[in-house]
Amino acid sequence: MTNRIIPTTMASQHPDHAGVPYWGKKEFISTRKEVKECFLTFSELGINEYKWDWEGKFVDESVVDRLLHEHFEYFQKHPLGREKFLTFRLPNPKVETEFRLGRAFMGILSASSLAKQLGLPTPPLFEVILPMTETAKEMIEIEEAFAEVASLKHRLYSLGDGTLKHIEVIPLFEQVETIMRSDAILEEYVRLHYKQFKTKPKVLRPYVARSDPALNSGLVPTVLAIKVGLSHYRDFEKKTGIVLSPIIGSACLPFRGGLTPYSVKQFCDEYKGVRTALLQSAFRYDYPTPDVVKAVELLDQLLPKGTAQIVSKPTEKQLREVIGMFERPYCATIEGIAPLISEVATHLPKRRERVQHIGLFGYSRGVGGVRLPRAIGFTGALYSLGVPPELIGTGRGLGLARKEGKLEIIERHYIHLKDDLRRAGRFFNREALDTLSQQSAAWEAIGEDIREIERYLGEELGPKTAEEKEHAGFTSLIASNIENLSSMEEPLHQAALTRRSLG
């Protein structure tokens, strides 16, 4: 599409909120409520894009029908696909059953027919997110599959209105190494796209994950990898003439992005070059709604102005070395404490209707030889135990970086590292870590992380405000009752409310 609007904010269905949505009566959001949520996201919060998630969760397949029939006048004034955007996140055929992919395609095509029938601009949906993208071939295969489905014709049915024959793919890069080489994937994609479709895309929206690379590699490696990726995107634009409008999968807690309604300026400063920020459920529902609306307006104002920092080739080589310094201790510790993380995560309150991640419908994530919960459960479990994951491996990485003379290069590219460590450190509970270390030696190395971070910051970690001290009380209780976690569901819930995010 030409002269298209690139939304600055994208709401997602990530189930990371602790409290009750401002429009609801309870914390849990059923699939049936997500259409209402989508409309209110557009009409009340001022967010212009909503990610409709087919990956690993149940989904209302009649979303466009419901939106257009229930809010026809609104979408006459603010058309889908022109001013407001509904973007399907597809199930990846590598890990989820392919029939869900076909159903998503059918929904996109039938939405185009419906919009035409109602006299609205078409197509209302024209791009999709492909999770876990690792090769250009995966992107092309999605486009080829869609083109085949769109070409099906029979006198008894019509797939689409004939105007939507090609789908645009937003590749979601979810690993540290993949993010750093994602420009090469995009270059190969452009070559294959021209070979297959005889055209080159005018705009691409590479989507860098923020939570899953952190889960797999730790905080500092993830941020540094994204800085390398954003720098490469600048080179890509100069080389190809194709506009890149990067998306980042930001969430509220620093481990998963650190974007809250109160940290917009810091976030925009840290992630210059990003054009679209994800606003997950905690951002929208765990803070006062007027503050959320103001934050969306500020993101609209600030985010488009940023230009990515250039990372030279010699600097990139050094950053790759630094990434290993932090990644190795992080992964070694996570492998040792993974069983308890997974156990605590199962007792966190559920917020949406997800399908199981192991077995027929889904998949799990992992580090080394262990399986882990998804990023929200992982982060929420560690915060609930009083040991925020931002701290794990980071202290030992900083200690080694100091010896190697690498602190300056880290701070030059992770601008707000100290701010993020201070913020996470306020939810650290020394008593809880001591309790966990007595029960398992796997936790002991985190003590070294704490000492090194405190040396780096020049201050002790721990709660400062009354609210943070209340959180510490809950985490002490949980850490002392890991043999009886089924009785800890209320403290788990209260701790999440106190930190304004489930995970």
UniProtKB/TrEMBL annotation:
Q: Which UniProt keywords apply?
A: Carbon dioxide fixation, Lyase, Magnesium, Pyruvate
Statement: the UniProt record of this protein carries the keyword Magnesium: yes
Top-level taxon in the UniProt lineage: Bacteria
Q: Which GO terms describe its biological process?
A: carbon fixation; tricarboxylic acid cycle
Q: What is its EC number?
A: 4.1.1.31
Q: Which InterPro entries match?
A: PEP_COase_arc-type, Pyrv/PenolPyrv_kinase-like_dom
Q: Does the keyword Lyase apply?
A: yes
> Which molecular function GO terms apply here?
phosphoenolpyruvate carboxylase activity
Under SUPFAM superfamilies, the record lists: Phosphoenolpyruvate/pyruvate domain
Q: Can you name this protein?
A: Phosphoenolpyruvate carboxylase
- Organism field: Candidatus Woesebacteria bacterium GW2011_GWA1_41_13b
